[in-house]
Amino acid sequence: MIKLRSEHEIKLMAQAGEIAELARRAAGEIIAPGVTTAEINAAAHKVITAAGAKPSFLGYAGFPASICCSINDEVIHGIPGKRKVREGDIVKIDVGAFYMGYHGDCAATFTAGSVPEETQRLIEVTRQSFYEGIKYAREGYRISDISHAIQEYNERHGFSVVREYVGHGIGTELHEEPEVPNFGPPGRGMRLFAGMTIAIEPMVNAGGWGVKLLSDGWTVKTADGSMSSHYENTILITKDEPIILTADASGRHV
Ligand code: MG
Fold first, then answer.
1. pLDDT tens, 174-189?
2. Which of 19, 55, 126, 215 is the most exposed place for a label (fewest CB within 10 A)?
3. Residue 1 pLDDT > 80, yes or no?
């Protein structure tokens, strides 16, 4: 069942989204060589709880932290802990906030110190592919129009998109229908209607698209050890341009 959100619900989702954005930003700001992933988690957790919200991920299917923190060839779902960020690392932060019954979910890839030019390009192409995708995130298009645009943009730049994990509907639940893949032919899947809220999240590898799950049961890495980048926002479909809900009150976002 796809839910179309009322004006009131959209207001609450924008508030949840703003908290998630502020947590993403706070996490990004402290990323530097020597910082532990647990410290990054604490920074985001503090922003979420200070705003009167709950971290969407904490306890989700047993996940033990408030953010996912994935480094270098880790794609998603890295568990914060004692690991120290090192010079040249790329650090993916994925964070959700649950506020007044609604979730906001966003992610971004940050750098610690300077990274090789090719890695910087991977990060920028991944982020831009989100914007290429949301050109089709409006009433009248279909889900896979977004998927196709994301895939095409990343592959044109020599990168590959992860197949096994996808974006998703979001609202009263963190993960709702429909699935929003980052690949596939255009013109398929569900039609988009004003009032739908979805999280679009390209996961992009420098090498092949294959991934593997580590024995901790959470961390997903690239199968070939290549670098991986992630970017995500929660958006609202309208008849016109989509609205990014994981943004602050002035519309700014990481
Ligand atoms: Mg998500």
1. 999 999 999 999 999 9
2. 215
3. no
What is the rounded distance in angstroms from the CA atom of residue 31 to the CA atom of residue 225? Answer: 22
| Amino acid occupying residue 120 | Q
> Could you report the per-residue pLDDT of 13-72, keeping only the tens digit for each?
999 999 999 999 999 999 999 999 999 999 999 999 999 999 999 999 999 999 999 999
What fold, for 7-244?
Creatine Amidinohydrolase (3.90.230)
Domain range list for the chain: 7-244
Q: How far is the CA of 123 from the centre of ligand 1 (A)?
A: 17
Distance 95 CA to ligand 1 centre (A): 8
Between CA 1 and CA 19 the distance in angstroms is 27
Q: How far is the CA of 58 from the centre of ligand 1 (A)?
A: 14
Nearest to 27 by CA among 44, 42, 47: 44
